[in-house]
Amino acid sequence: MASPRILVVDDEADLRELLEITLVRMGLDVDSADSLAAARAHLAQNQYALVLTDMRLPDGSGIELVGEVAGACKNTPIAVITAFGSAENAVAALKAGAFDYVSKPLALEQLRLLVHSALRLDGVAGMSAKPAATPGRAASRLTGDSPAMQALRAQIARLARSMAPVAISGESGSGKELAARAIHACSARADQPFIAVNCGAIPDNLMEAEFFGYRKGAFTGAIEDRDGFFQAAHGGTLMLDEVADLPLAMQVKLLRAIQERCVRKLGAIAEEPVDVRIVSATHKNLAKCVEDGSFRQDLYYRLNVIELALPALRERREDIGLLADAILMRLATAGNAAVLAPSALQALCGHAFPGNVRELENILERALAFAEDGVIQVADLALKAAKSPASMSPDANPIPSQPHAIAGGAACPPRDDGIPSCLPDYLSGIERDIIRRALVQTRYNRTQAAELLGISFRQLRYQMQKLDISEPE
Q1: Which domain holds residue 194?
Q2: DSSP state letter for 16
Q3: Is the dihedral of CA 265, 271, 276, 280 positive or negative?
């Protein structure tokens, strides 16, 4: 089998020679170019497992080549060589689609780590202990068929091919760690460690030791050498959860570790290289934290190369049924399994969910304990200030507050305090009213009405029979 072929683009002959020797010793074939024009000629004639280019070339910028390779050769990772301390160029290259970067003067160990990561990504035989998970399978951990979730999974599949840092934003409980794990599982690092760190849960005086490790005797109580989070995540992904809670002193040290790809343990003299991909997450607005001075601007730009925003649960209500089924299946134990009654699902779809998916899990776990006969009813959910789905839409007609007719022609009049005297009948009246409006809006097309209500056709048919809703003659 032919060796993987690498294209090196640099106008410095000495550096090109160093790169060629290093790569050849790794068992790779190497082509070299001293300009953009020469690089384009090579790319037109050959396929490469990796392109490595300098940022400054005599006839243009390496950023131009990054854009061309990222656009025309989507399966070819391209990495850039940046000048020492030129963080802006590195970030610009990553935003343009570069797989990774390495700084001058070249540290050969970092270069080898970069090449191995790129070749694993490209599927070169022998470069990975086991194949990375397929994007579809890994990202499917994020349950939901809504347009927002489909777009999110597609975005994760794309950005997983890069080494660029990812900043995940979203409300508390929206699944930021799950998204980070999906990014890791879709990447070439899937067989390497995934380390999640809650930055707000580490005492300030222990932060440096926890992140970078320490040598025996570095401080009182350091009875043996210990690795930190960076060393534990070597070769894999390090997730910095609630990164906005890091104190400013630690932000400086973290910035250096990310830029230089090296860390120094407490009590050690020499730095050691680390190969980690950084994924950060927070429910706070990092840009606002930069404005008020609680978060360093240079660290913000280093972490926020690729943004990934997670939708709140109220923005994808059509996924609530699928999520509820998945959660109940996970919570089910011998003799303790239940399903949602249609009215309970309706009530969940109308709830605001300020706590997002985590709140849904808590509600269902509590309801499961109170459910009788294996069916969770509305009362078991104990929802507060629930709203109907129709009331959440600004275009929807308000649900009438007067007594509702129920099947058989009876009524459920409210008491003087506004609380209905018969909750099940009252909710049935609300449900009947919503289904009728959906049917009228879709001209009694049951398939479209079911889609509008976020339920299956079979559920809609069952509810129409139960609530004695018939189509007009």
Answers
A1: 135-311
A2: H
A3: positive
